[in-house]
Write a structure and sequence with these properties.
Blueprint: E1 8-13, H1 19-28, E2 32-35, H2 37-45, E3 50-52, H3 53-57, H4 72-79, H5 85-93, E4 99-105, H6 119-129, E5 136-138, H7 144-152, H8 158-182, H9 200-204, E6 210-217, E7 220-225, E8 241-244, H10 250-263, E9 271-277, E10 280-287, H11 291-301, E11 310-313, H12 319-326, E12 332-335, H13 340-346, E13 353-356, E14 367-372, E15 375-380, H14 384-388, E16 392-393, H15 401-414, E17 422-425, E18 430-434, H16 440-449, E19 459-462, H17 473-478, E20 482-486, H18 493-501, E21 505-509
Parallel strand pairs: 1-2, 1-4, 2-3, 4-5, 11-12, 12-13, 19-20, 20-21
Antiparallel strand pairs: 6-7, 8-13, 9-10, 9-11, 14-15, 16-21, 17-18, 17-19
Length: about 525
């Protein structure tokens, strides 16, 4: 065999389902099947004529196959650009056959000891993904039938190969992430189950579609860009669909993110609505009976801030909930879904935007990033409800059941506010919120001053330690008898004594860093 003129297909798979069928069809198309180790044995047992990598490279398969593909006879065949004469001349000079097809998938590493980094397989995938103009690289057995069908029709286009390359890169990142975890480090990325369709780049060419067009700048429209799987290292984006209304603006994107993040803290057991505006949570309502009730309570928590605000709810918006929403001028409503009759009556408000984002998921955002002039800050996210379970009571009596439910609501909301915020709640929603002031004492005064007279405040949550007894006096005057306070160390005895004097029960909760 003249290697320089042969068409080679490299098949090495931890998951060997469908591999034999793939090999038979590739052989029928004129490919020479190159493999090694258990994959080669399985293919030979299935009647496939296999050219071993050891024979191709004239090098023994040493180190348990750890470097079997790391040889010019394999790597040059994958990496060589077919459109460059100097590359093809080099392959001919050294009698190296071009590897046009790479089907490799890696073991899901459990630990460094028993499943180390697959250098050989990862290298083959990276090399193939780096040359989609000449190589089809497959890491998922579910893609074998689709690739073969496209090849039979002569339609394995560059767009499809680019999509497969993206998927291969994600597969390598996932493998590296498992190895990183085995070493005690962070995961580098996550990948969901195999999609039924080609990856994004194959569906619409190399260009990704924007999720929403934002404001118009002098150089063109700014966009919220859909992320490729490879970019989803810390974010699992929801399924966005703008059902009605003008394009989203930048501030509405931020408000939707803030409201959806706070909403995810409450799950789906009770109907919940969160109002956000100017990048902060303004109000919230939690009602066991209906979404409409949660909406009415939320927008009534701060009627002025609710004007042209964003409202997010954790359940499908039905007709009753939409009527409650239309009672006030809003800019955006975000929900997992909308009933048809709700969308129909919302059409009368041309400026109201309806956005679906799938069910709220507290684990959707794995890490927060903030760019500063000193560098990029990154922080792993924590569910506020989980942190609350670590709270300790520092007063003689703990909060009663009613107070604890109000505290839990207030704590979940203050965790999604800027630093130095205070939230006052009863069992069913917020009563007064102050966000991002100069110090927590000012936040307490403002939050107390914003409390609606129509509601009886029960509990307050603050995201920083209180410094003196004077911080407790506004709570005592309003009748608040329970406080959740973020602190990493026990408060001063004088503060605890003052709380006892005012009959205020204090929970100390570990601080959640905010960037």
């Amino acid at each position: 065999m003249n290697n320089s003129t042969a068409r080679l297909a490299l098949l090495l798979a931890h998951d060997r389902s469908g591999l034999a069928d793939l090999a038979h069809e590739l052989s029928a198309m004129g490919y020479f099947i190159v493999s090694a180790g258990p994959s080669a044995m399985d293919l030979a047992a299935a009647g496939v004529k296999v050219l071993t990598i050891e024979r191709l490279s004239a090098t023994p398969d040493i180190l348990d196959g750890a470097i079997r593909t790391l040889h010019p006879a394999v790597m040059a065949g994958i990496c060589a650009r077919r459109d460059r004469a100097d590359h093809t001349d080099l392959l001919n000079a050294y009698r190296i056959g071009p590897v046009d097809f790479v089907a490799v998938n890696l073991a899901p590493a459990g630990s460094v000891a028993d499943s180390p980094l697959d250098l050989s397989g990862a290298a083959a995938l990276l090399a193939g993904a780096n040359n989609p103009q000449g190589v089809a690289v497959l890491c998922d057995p579910a893609d074998y039938p689709k690739a073969l069908a496209a090849m039979r029709e002569g339609a394995l286009s560059i767009e499809i190969r680019q999509g497969l390359a993206i998927k291969a890169l994600v597969h390598v990142v996932e493998h590296l992430g498992h190895v990183s975890l085995g070493l005690g480090g962070p995961a580098l990325g996550e990948r969901g189950a195999g999609a039924e369709q080609w990856p994004p780049a194959a569906q619409g060419g190399a260009q990704l579609e924007p999720a929403a067009v934002l404001w118009q700048s002098p150089s063109g429209p700014e966009q919220v860009q859909l992320l490729t799987d490879l970019q989803q290292q810390w974010l699992s984006p929801p399924s966005l669909s703008l059902l009605q209304g003008p394009a989203l603006t930048a501030d509405l994107v931020v408000d939707a993110d803030v409201a959806w993040g706070a909403l995810a803290e409450f799950g789906e057991s009770v109907a919940t609505a969160v109002v956000s505006r100017a990048g902060v949570v303004c109000a919230a309502g939690v009602m066991a009976m209906s979404v409409a009730g949660a909406v009415l309570r939320a927008v009534d928590g701060d009627p002025l801030a609710a004007q042209y605000a964003t409202v997010a709810v954790n359940r499908t918006v039905d007709l009753g909930a939409m009527r409650a929403l239309l009672a006030r001028p809003l800019a955006l409503v975000v929900a997992p879904a909308f009933d048809d009759d709700a969308v129909e009556i919302a059409a009368a408000s041309a400026q109201l935007r309806l956005l679906t984002m799938g069910p709220p998921n507290p684990a959707a955002l794995h890490r927060r990033l903030r760019a500063t002039r000193l560098g990029v800050l990154q922080q792993d996210t924590q569910a506020a409800g989980d942190v609350l379970q670590l709270a300790t009571c520092v007063t003689a009596s703990p909060p009663d059941e009613v107070q604890y439910r109000a505290l839990a609501l207030a704590w979940r909301l203050v965790a999604h506010q800027p630093s130095c915020s205070a939230v006052v709640c009863d069992e069913s929603g917020s009563v007064g919120i102050a966000s991002g002031l100069a110090n927590v004492g000012d936040a307490i005064v403002v939050a107390v001053g914003k409390c609606r007279r129509t509601y009886k405040p029960v509990a307050m949550a603050v995201d920083a330690p209180l410094l003196g007894r004077e911080n407790l006096e506004p709570l005592a005057k309003l009748g608040i008898r329970a406080l959740a306070m973020a602190c990493d160390e026990p408060p001063a005895p004088a503060l605890v004594a003052a709380a006892e004097d005012h009959s205020i029960r204090i929970l100390c909760v570990p601080r959640i860093p905010k960037i």
